[in-house]
């Protein structure tokens, strides 16, 4: 039994914290949202009054927050200020590489072990304990990070040193953002050509058009039971979050000199969908834009 502080109990963090509690760990949980905190308590966590209180006697701190500024603030004001120096700190949020490296440097200067460990897999995998973690940490710390993440994971892979987990994540999500748009365009064309969308799904999932966005997360309702398309695109991975990740990829591409024209196109499409009101919907809802339906 490990004392774990879990900060950020949203779409992803809620299921992840629940799996740590289910594995028998003592999870002290905190979120700014009272509703998120209540859910975590129902799943076996203890509610803390603040992030500072949650981390105060933690052996492990796990954070799952929206973006870089949240992570920088929570670590600077609460985690690094209040957690015991022996605590292992793991940030699972998707953030920019610079923020991850800056937080790691601050943590290391104070003697903490730190890992950036963003995830792939979505809310279903967060609930099912089947996320893929991409880890940036000192090699010597990886065994402890891997053991800690195990109740939430189907795979834990060390990408390299601090920041490497975030680098792997933004590259992976650029693939995801682009592939979802490809799948949506194909559904929109199939519909115009008079194809039955379910028949197209059956064919493409057995053909070379097969990919995760189609087979595991189809944007067309009724094809993949767990997909957000069956819940009016609620929950899941918000368009605004996908847009954030594609912006991170474009910033990284500009800084490093990589050519990523399809990533830039995808960023523009999600920005338009966000501007039209789709930011809170799962990113697969962009299908409706291609079908001419506004959110
Ligand atoms: P979310 O908005 O549902 O959850 C974030 C939670 O953090 C919210 O409940 C919010 O209240 C809380 N929070 C914000 N600031 C806080 C603070 N200072 N103290 C305590 N709590 C605070 O987002 P999510 O979908 O769970 O995503 C979390 C991270 O995981 C993001 O970086 C996202 O890019 C990444 N991610 C999401 C998915 C997905 O499918 N949703 C998949 C992979 C990665």
Automatic annotation (TrEMBL):
GO terms for biological process: branched-chain amino acid catabolic process. Belongs to the HIBADH-related family. The active site is at residue 169. Its EC number is 1.1.1.31. It comes from the Bacteria. This is 3-hydroxyisobutyrate dehydrogenase. Keywords: Branched-chain amino acid catabolism, NAD, Oxidoreductase. It comes from Phenylobacterium glaciei. Residues 163-289 form the 3-hydroxyisobutyrate dehydrogenase-like NAD-binding domain. Residues 3-157 form the 6-phosphogluconate dehydrogenase NADP-binding domain. Gene3D superfamilies: N-(1-d-carboxylethyl)-l-norvaline Dehydrogenase, domain 2, NAD(P)-binding Rossmann-like Domain. InterPro entries: 3-OH-isobutyrate_DH-rel_CS, 6-PGluconate_DH-like_C_sf, 6PGD_dom2, 6PGDH_NADP-bd, HIBADH, HIBADH-like_NADP-bd, HIBADH-related, NAD(P)-bd_dom_sf. PANTHER family: 3-HYDROXYISOBUTYRATE DEHYDROGENASE, MITOCHONDRIAL (PTHR22981:SF7), 3-HYDROXYISOBUTYRATE DEHYDROGENASE-RELATED (PTHR22981). Pathway: Amino-acid degradation; L-valine degradation. PROSITE patterns: 3_HYDROXYISOBUT_DH. One of its GO terms (molecular function) is NAD binding. It catalyses: 3-hydroxy-2-methylpropanoate + NAD(+) = 2-methyl-3-oxopropanoate + NADH + H(+).
């Amino acid at each position: 039994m490990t004392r774990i502080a879990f900060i950020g109990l949203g779409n992803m963090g809620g299921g992840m914290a629940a799996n740590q509690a289910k594995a028998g760990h003592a999870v002290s949980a905190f979120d700014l949202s009272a509703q998120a905190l209540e859910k975590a308590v129902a799943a076996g966590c203890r509610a803390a009054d603040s992030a500072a209180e949650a981390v105060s006697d933690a052996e492990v701190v796990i954070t799952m927050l929206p973006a870089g500024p949240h992570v920088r603030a929570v670590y600077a004001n609460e985690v690094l200020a209040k957690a015991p120096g022996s605590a292992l700190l793991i940030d699972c949020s998707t953030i920019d590489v610079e923020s991850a490296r800056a937080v790691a440097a601050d943590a290391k200067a104070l003697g903490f072990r730190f890992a950036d460990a963003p995830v792939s897999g979505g809310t279903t995998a967060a609930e099912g304990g089947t996320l893929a973690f991409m880890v940036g940490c000192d090699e010597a710390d990886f065994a402890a990070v891997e053991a800690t993440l195990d109740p939430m994971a189907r795979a834990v892979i060390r990408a390299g040193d601090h920041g490497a987990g975030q680098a792997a994540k933004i590259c992976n999500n650029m693939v995801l953002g682009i592939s979802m748009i490809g799948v949506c365009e194909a559904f929109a064309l199939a519909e115009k050509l008079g194809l039955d969308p379910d028949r197209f799904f059956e064919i493409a999932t057995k053909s070379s058009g097969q990919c995760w966005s189609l087979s595991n997360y189809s944007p067309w309702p009724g094809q993949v039971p767990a997909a957000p398309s069956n819940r009016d695109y609620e929950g899941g991975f918000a368009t605004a979050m996908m847009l954030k990740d594609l912006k991170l990829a474009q910033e990284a591409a500009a800084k490093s000199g990589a050519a990523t024209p399809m990533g830039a196109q995808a960023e523009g499409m999600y920005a338009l969908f966000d501007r039209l009101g789709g930011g809170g919907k799962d990113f697969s809802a962009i299908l409706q834009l291609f079908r001419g339906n506004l959110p």
